[in-house]
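Chapter summary example.
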Amino acid sequence: MAPSSGSRNKDQQHPQWSNDRQIVNTLLDSQPTDYNLAELARLRIRYQNFPGARDIQADLDKVLSQWQLTEATLFEKTRQIHQTAQVYRGRGSQREDWS
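The structure predicted for these 99 residues follows.
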């Protein structure tokens, strides 16, 4: 049975929205440090194609623009960061953070 057109267009609430909203607010007022770049990339991946959280998605785009980055450049930078440093060391690495 196909879903009704109403359910296809309904935005979902992401279970991590509240925590992520705080992180995004911080990123909007921050500089692109290694940690902040890693956080931006992580959230871009989490909310990519997510049917909802439009405010977070728009603000992630805004941060990219403020930092004068494209998504491809962001991901390239964060790949380099993760190869050379443990960005999340000492930040609760035992905690699971599923998308």
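To summarize the output: The CA atoms of residues 20 and 43 lie 8 Å apart.
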